[in-house]
Structures are given as structure tokens and as C-alpha cells.
Design a protein that fits this description.
By secondary structure, the protein is an alpha/beta fold. It has one domain: Metallo-beta-lactamase, Chain A. It is about 25% helix and about 25% strand. The chain has eight helices and 13 strands. The strands form two sheets. It has a seven-stranded mixed beta sheet with strand order 1-2-3-4-5-6-7, covered by helices on one side. A six-stranded mixed beta sheet has the order 8-9-10-11-12-13, with helices on one face. Pfam families: ODP. InterPro entries: Metallo-B-lactamas, ODP_dom, RibonucZ/Hydroxyglut_hydro. This is Metallo-beta-lactamase family protein.
């Protein structure tokens, strides 16, 4: 599995994990992100059970395992958090931050040691050493209870399924040609995002944030002016296509 530091500040790092050439062919490719401070770390959308072993092997190349103190699951999908049962055995003292709505579902993946820290619908904040991140509401994009992670110091938004694209495992992790990238995003967003009003609420919320890196859970990372390009494109896109086509 590939890992790469994508942002580094005086107080913390953002590390990307993904593009695993050894993953089973029939499962969707995913991106995982970890925020590392002096003494703690937050692993976001840790991935499916099939990726647990390569994720664990990659993480310990960057930090000692005892430094991984916090997990985040944007919603309940198996590609997000079905590895929970194995993390529960590996990190018994960790905390999982996830929407309150999905606690009864996420616990089905196996959760006896890690504590569930329910995020209220309006979102909240988490402090890791000197760094504070915000859990930004992204409800119905695509899950009915859904959050993204915003780091104002590093100007990073981990955007879950928003911005996702379906690509091969051997492509670069950053968008190089936005116009060419659209064709890899269009169907995913039109089919998986059910609500134009929810989409527009999220866009209005996110436009108020200072973002240099928009990091989705599938596909490539947007940086710099591409963040605004993505928001403009997503704003004009009509979503919930399955409903309109039936």
C-alpha cells in the first residue's frame, strides 16, 4: 500500500494511504488519511476488513502503534469501517468518532473495547495536542448521517465520498487535469448523492472554509484552485439521478 505525507505544518502532518496493488479486484479502491500530532494520531475512514493488514503495516512505518489514539468514520459503509473489529482488538484504548445515527449499525462490525464518541447532527470539534479539527456536517452526501473533517491550520478538508472518482490503483494521488477528471466523477456523484438541497447546503457551508486540499475517500486529491473548480462543478450538477430516471 502506498503512503505519502501530503501536508506538513510545525505541529502536525497529514498522511495519505491507498493505491494498494494487492487489494482484491472486486472491492472498491479507497483512500485513508491520518493526522499525526506530537503524541496522538487520528485515522480517518480506516477502510474495509480486507485492507486491515496492509493499513496496519503502513501505519507503523510512520508512527508507533500506541500513538494511534483516535479513529473517525464519516458514515457506516463497509468500505469505511468494516475493519473496526480488528482495530478494536489492536487499539483497545482508542476512541471512534462517528455520527450518532450510525452507532447501532457500526457496532455490528465488532466493537467491545474502543469507545464510541457520537457526533451530534450539528457537528463538533476534537483537539489533538495543539491541533483542533472540526467535524463538518455533510448529511445525505451520501449517508443520512455523515460528516467530514476540517483542519483549519493545515487548510485540509477530508471530504468522504464528495469528490470521489473511480480509478485504477496505479494513478497519481493528485488531480492533474480537472476537466479530464470530471468524466471519472460524474456518474458517481449523480447516482450516489440523492439530494440537490443537501448538496447545496454543503457547498454553502464549505465555501466559507479556507481549503487548500480537498481529500475524498475515493480517487484523487484536489489542491489549490482545483478546490474551487470542484465546488463550481458540483454546484451545477443535478444529483439523485436514479430517482429522476425512474
Amino acid at each position: 500500500m502506498k503512503s505519502q505525507i501530503i501536508v506538513e505544518t510545525p505541529t502536525h502532518q497529514w498522511i495519505y494511504f491507498g493505491r494498494d496493488p494487492e487489494k482484491p479486484d472486486k472491492i472498491i479502491d479507497t483512500n485513508q488519511y491520518m493526522l499525526v500530532t506530537e503524541k496522538k494520531a487520528l485515522l480517518m475512514d480506516p477502510g474495509g476488513i480486507e485492507l486491515f493488514a496492509p493499513m496496519l503495516a503502513s501505519i507503523v512505518k510512520h508512527i508507533p502503534l500506541e500513538q494511534l489514539t483516535h479513529l473517525f468514520a464519516s458514515h457506516q459503509d463497509p468500505d469505511i469501517i468494516s475493519s473496526l473489529g480488528l482495530w478494536d482488538q489492536t487499539l483497545p484504548g482508542a476512541k471512534l468518532y462517528s455520527p450518532w445515527l450510525w452507532e447501532g449499525f457500526i457496532r455490528h462490525f465488532g466493537m467491545h473495547n474502543i469507545s464510541y464518541e457520537a457526533i451530534p447532527d450539528e457537528g463538533n470539534r476534537l483537539r489533538l495536542d495543539q491541533v483542533e479539527v472540526q467535524f463538518i456536517p455533510a448529511h445525505y452526501l451520501h449517508a443520512s448521517g455523515n460528516f467530514h473533517v476540517y483542519d483549519p491550520a493545515a487548510r485540509v478538508l477530508m471530504s468522504g465520498d464528495v469528490g470521489a472518482a473511480l480509478e485504477d490503483h496505479d494513478v497519481d494521488i493528485f488531480v492533474d487535469d480537472f476537466e479530464a477528471h470530471i468524466k471519472k466523477m460524474r456518474f458517481f456523484h449523480q447516482r450516489w448523492m440523492p439530494s440537490n438541497s443537501a448538496k447545496n447546503d454543503w457547498i454553502n457551508r464549505v465555501r466559507k472554509l479556507d481549503i487548500d486540499y480537498l481529500c475524498p475517500q475515493h480517487g484523487r486529491i484536489f489542491k489549490g484552485e482545483q478546490v474551487g473548480q470542484f465546488l463550481d462543478w458540483f454546484e451545477q450538477l443535478d444529483v439523485g439521478q436514479a430517482i429522476s430516471n425512474t
